[in-house]
Design brief:
This is GNAT family N-acetyltransferase. The chain is of the alpha+beta class. 32% of the residues lie in helices and 28% in strands. The protein is built from five helices and seven strands, in the order E-H-H-E-E-H-E-H-E-H-E-E. The protein has a seven-stranded mixed β-sheet, with helices on both faces. The protein is globular, with a radius of gyration of 15 Å. It starts with a strand and ends in a 6-residue tail after the last strand. Bound molecules: coenzyme A (COA). Coenzyme A (COA) binds next to helix 1, strand 4, helix 4 and helix 5.
């Protein structure tokens, strides 16, 4: 995987490539892809949004991450706020950088690309911490986030559109190094 470079991603022009990565890594139906496409394009208009891609020498996208400073008025924040508040953690919604999506193609997982994407996107942000939601399972993704310093803030968290519950996780920045 030496030929994989991590760098800024023009997500607006590569949204279909990114969703293809997400569909293979995370599993998305065609209908979900269409919905996500609109959400991603709307997110790209928000202040402070950042996106990084992992690309091969022939410019194939094999992983990506994007996120933005949290805003309590954003839909995601309004859904998770009562769960965090009940546990005394809603202060995490202020001055926090949200990881919205992070996905690496299965054939490229486990070789450090996800770690590079999430540390390189969070390292330069001015916010002192980062939050995200991950499936509420003892999954590889949960172990991956724990290794970077993310801890569980609230679970199970139910998003209106989702079939399965999520966990909200938060980490202070910079993320933990190996
Ligand atoms: C979760 C995901 C983004 C991680 O990216 P990745 O490139 O595979 O992870 P890395 O190779 O950078 O691993 C970084 C660290 O996490 C650990 N890790 C990764 N996969 C792991 C697993 N299956 N079990 C335990 N630890 C794991 C690695 O051991 C590594 O630790 P180290 O740096 O101390 O050695 C990627 O596997 C993925 O896209 N999964 C499917 C989609 C998904 O679940 N996305 C997250 C949605 S919330």
């Amino acid at each position: 995987m030496d030929d994989v470079a991590v760098g800024p991603l023009d997500l607006a022009s590569r949204v279909d490539d990114a969703l293809a990565v997400q569909a293979l890594a995370f599993g998305l139906t065609d209908e979900e892809i269409a919905v996500r496409r609109q959400i991603v394009l709307r997110h790209l208009t928000l202040p402070g949004v950042r996106a990084l891609g992992a690309t091969t020498a022939d410019d194939r996208l094999v992983g990506f991450v994007y996120g933005m400073p949290n805003d309590r008025a954003h839909w995601w924040s309004t859904v998770v706020e009562p769960y965090l508040r009940r546990r005394g953690h809603d202060g995490w919604l202020d001055d926090s950088f949200v990881i919205v999506e992070l996905h690496v193609l299965p054939a490229y997982q486990g070789v450090g690309i996800g770690r590079r994407l999430i540390t390189e996107i969070t390292d330069p942000v001015p916010q002192p911490r980062s939050i995200l939601s991950a499936l509420d399972l003892d999954s590889p993704a949960r172990r991956f986030y724990r290794g970077l310093g993310y801890r569980d803030l609230a679970h199970p968290v139910h998003f209106p559109s989702a079939r399965t519950p999520y966990t909200v996780m938060g980490a202070t920045l910079p993320l933990r190094r190996r």
